[in-house]
Amino acid sequence: MIFVESWGLVQVSLLGMSFLALLSLNHDFYFFFVGYGLGVDYLGFILIILSVWILSLMVFASQTVKKANNYSKEFLGVNLILLFILLMSFCSADYLMFYVSFESSLVPMFILILGWGYQPERIQAGLYMLFYTLFASLPLLVSLVSLYKSSGSLCMELALSGGFSFKVSVLWYFCTLFAFLVKLPLFLFHLWLPKAHVEAPVAGSMVLAGILLKLGGYGLIRVLPLFFEMNKLFTWIWVSLGVLGGVVVSLMCLRQVDVKSLIAYSSVAHMGMVLSGISLMSHWGLSGAVVVMVGHGLCSSGLFCLANIMYERLGSRSLMVGKGLLNFMPNLGLVWFLLCIGNMAAPPTLNLLGEISLIVSVVSWSKLGIWGIAALSFFSASYTLYMYSLSQHGQFLNSLYSCSSGTLNEYFVLMLHIIPLNMVIMKGFVAFPSFC
């Protein structure tokens, strides 16, 4: 009797998992429920590992907070709260719980910028981030309430199964996606990101680029199956804004003087490609988007860490002041090079694997996309080479401090960014199960 009941439960759970797999954008994201509205799948598990990894390195990179006794205990407490909120976001099997966790991540980030930022402009940057996010979040809450009224549940599996009877209008489609597009951020809604990066401490920049931007892509992957038919009508908008917006932002990168501002704008260009892949709802596009999100999280976080090392030595983030770093800190020349080629998606980095998949998905959707992607790839390489050559070459203003090496702690943090970025590509079948 017990065997029959347990076998029946197994059959029901297998049916539910296979049904969800069909609806999860043709990808192998199987949900494993653990109760209390929590569950995890392959996508959530990848981002949970990335969150713990980046948060740990972020604390290692913030040694100056401890040395200056700048409220170090409170700093660690804010980081732990942020990590808990991120884990709840990626473990949520309920749309309402995901919404609460998604919006709660704004509070610790706001405290990090205002509490440990560098300049008085950090108040303006924090308000920019706060109001951009809050302005976009209320329509999402109204949309989720409407979904609950229509389908009778906000559990992701049950809502997906009842999503096709959900009377979708254009208004609800855009209201639901808008919050995630601002968090991603989409071009035209990205002005809060460079301001937040420039004014945030190194910990804030690392977690913002490494994890918080991924919440937007993760949310899009979760809600787009609800609007499967409606999304087909508006795919051209997201692909166009993603690719052409990336080209415009890449041109803006070429005129940046602040290193952190340049890296922040490059994040917008990368996330534009991620948006294109997710909105196409194809296996290639979704797989490539997930790989680029992980690769960008490691690469961008490492670049912000390097920018902080430069700022601590020189007292400035300007590329005009920080010339000749190859003479000033020769040991870090290789680290700069490895992270820069990762930013331009050169082999053997993880970004290359993801961008190849994204390029294939966009070009297979429209042959015209090759021109936008060609321009985006060219200018991505251009601004990355511009950043590397201008910072590393030239004559340093004060040659008395030549051959100033980094500390062991800094090398440790940078290597833990570079090694996964270049080694995970050897296990590419984890991201592309269909290639096995």
Automatic annotation (TrEMBL):
Pfam families with a match to the protein in the record: Oxidored_q5_N, Proton_antipo_M
Keywords for this protein: Electron transport, Membrane, Mitochondrion, NAD, Respiratory chain, Translocase, Transmembrane, Transmembrane helix, Transport, Ubiquinone
Subcellular locations according to the entry: Mitochondrion membrane
Top-level division of the source organism's lineage: Eukaryota
Transmembrane segments: 12-36, 42-62, 74-90, 96-118, 130-150, 170-193, 200-221, 233-255, 262-284, 290-311, 332-350, 370-390, 411-432
Function: Core subunit of the mitochondrial membrane respiratory chain NADH dehydrogenase (Complex I) that is believed to belong to the minimal assembly required for catalysis. Complex I functions in the transfer of electrons from NADH to the respiratory chain. The immediate electron acceptor for the enzyme is believed to be ubiquinone. Core subunit of the mitochondrial membrane respiratory chain NADH dehydrogenase (Complex I) which catalyzes electron transfer from NADH through the respiratory chain, using ubiquinone as an electron acceptor. Essential for the catalytic activity and assembly of complex I.
Protein name: NADH-ubiquinone oxidoreductase chain 4
Record organism: Engaeus lengana
Gene (UniProt): nad4
